[in-house]
Amino acid sequence: MKQHLKSIVITGILLAIGATLGWYWSQPKPVLVKVHAVERGSVQSTASNTRAGTVKACRRAHLAPAIGGLIAKLPVSQSDDVKEGQLLLELWNHDIAAEIKFSKEEAIATRARSQEACVVAKVARREAERLVRLRKKKLASEEQTERAVGEAEAREAACKAAKAANRVSDARVAVIQETLERTVLLAPFDGTVAEVNGELGEFVTPSPPGIPTPPAIDLIDNSCLYISAPIDEVDAPSVKKNMPVRITLDAFPGESFEGQVRRIAPYVLEIEKQSRTVDVEAVFTNPDDYSRLLPGYSADLEVILNTRDNVLRIPTEALLAMEQAGTKRQPRVLVLPDGDDSLREVTVETGLSNWKLTEITKGLEEGDKVVVTIDRKGVEAGALVTVE
Question: Are 71 and 211 in a shared domain?
Answer without folding.
Answer: yes
